[in-house]
Design a protein that fits this description.
Protein name: Class I SAM-dependent methyltransferase
InterPro entries: Methyltransf_25 (IPR041698), SAM-binding_MTase (IPR053173), SAM-dependent_MTases_sf (IPR029063), WH-like_DNA-bd_sf (IPR036388), WH_DNA-bd_sf (IPR036390), WHD_Rv2258c (IPR048711)
Pfam families: Methyltransf_25 (PF13649), WHD_Rv2258c (PF21320)
Organism: Microbacterium allomyrinae
Strand content: 5-15%
Largest sheet: 7 strands, mixed
CATH topology of the largest domain: Rossmann fold
Keywords: Methyltransferase, Transferase
């Protein structure tokens, strides 16, 4: 017998779904504010609808609707008693750090871009789910590419050096005179640049298969002579570079790669026997548990819409997905010739965990 329609559990779950609807709509409203420059136009300077339209170059009617929606959502503040044309909307300083300050560790506007990128490929995702195919990273476009780069940049800029310096074995390898470092899956290059800036006697090679991201990386690194970028798959890093590197890193990319064992095997060959190989990936739980915590929930979300379809767009992919648990990484590491993958004592680095691959 089915429960009656007014059952408390039914009503409670219907409310949960409605709350998720609101969240989805509001994250897309953040996308508009981010991509149209509306938050930046409001940063430190309240505006009426007409003033915002003028500053950002958008239509005044849309400006008024967006401003009112943002105030109703609690993202902006406003005096609702004033005449509609005279209302000045304010982006509070705390909200500015989250929505309009790309140097802030809590900068979150890029998250909306990743959601929008995934939503733009829903027809392709439906086909992939039915056929077992995939949706390659390039198809998600600049929204996804820029979102990943911009989201991670403040952490690499301000926290990576300290995090690595806190682990003596890693710091010592990076501090060698004339050290060579490989950064595999470098994307926009912010991790590559951060490594070069933190260790001024080292040279750093960034590797990636996303040509547009590498173009951006080269622009970002302009003037840094010790940084080079290469359009090359991780599986080929050791080609002509046997035992060339003192250290190698894969920052939030191994779970996307169709052949992680091949990549780690290449790093095992490319890094000197006394060097270090460090993997930074998502700080997911040790084992599957349901329901999960917010980190598990968001990582499975990324996996459904971006990471798993991207990986499966390559024939023969092992299809790891975003939720790569330590046991999975350790298995890949052992298959590649390492002894184990050991979590490093680096905490509070966004939603990431660092692993040292032991020889």
């Amino acid at each position: 017998m089915t429960a009656p329609e007014n059952d408390d559990a039914v009503d409670a779950f219907a409310e949960v779904v409605f709350d998720r609807l609101i969240g989805g709509i509001e994250i897309l409203s953040i996308y508009l504010g981010d991509r149209l420059g509306l938050y930046r136009a409001l940063a430190g300077s309240p505006a009426t609808a007409a003033e915002l339209a003028s500053r950002a170059g958008i239509h005044e009617r849309y400006a008024r609707e967006w401003l009112e929606q943002q105030a109703v959502a609690g993202f902006l503040t406003v005096d609702p008693t004033r005449d509609a044309t005279q209302r000045q909307f304010v982006l509070p300083a705390a909200h500015e750090r989250v929505l309009a300050d790309p140097s802030s560790l809590v900068y979150s506007a890029p998250l909306a871009r990743m959601v929008a990128a995934a939503a733009s490929r829903l027809p392709d995702l439906l086909t992939a789910y039915r056929t077992g195919g995939g949706v390659g990273w390039a198809l998600f476009g600049d929204d996804a590419r820029d979102a990943q780069g911009d989201q991670n940049r403040p952490w690499f800029d301000s926290a990576l050096a300290g995090a690595l310096a806190s682990v003596p074995a890693v710091h010592d390898a990076l501090s060698r005179d004339g050290a060579r470092i490989a950064d595999v899956g470098c994307g926009h290059g912010w991790s590559t640049i951060a490594l070069a800036q933190a260790y001024p006697s080292a040279s750093v090679d960034g590797f990636d298969l996303d040509a547009p991201a590498l173009e951006s990386a080269r622009l970002h690194a302009e003037g840094l002579e010790r940084v080079s970028f290469h359009h090359l798959a991780g599986e080929r890093v050791a080609d002509g570079r046997e035992a060339a590197y003192d250290a190698a890193f894969v920052f939030e990319a191994l779970h996307d790669m169709p052949d992680p064992v091949g990549v780690l095997t290449a790093l095992h060959r490319a890094v000197k026997p006394d060097g270090v190989v460090v993997i930074m990936d998502e700080a997911v739980a040790e084992q599957f548990t349901a329901p999960g915590d917010p980190i598990e929930r968001v990582m499975y979300g990324y996996s459904l819409f971006v990471c798993l379809p991207d990986s499966m767009s390559t024939a023969g992919s092992v299809a790891t997905g975003t939720v790569m648990r330590r046991s999975t990484l350790a298995r890949y590491a052992r298959e590649a010739g390492f002894r184990d993958a050991v979590a490093l004592p680096i905490e509070g680095f966004a939603a990431f965990r660092f692993y040292l691959l032991e020889r």
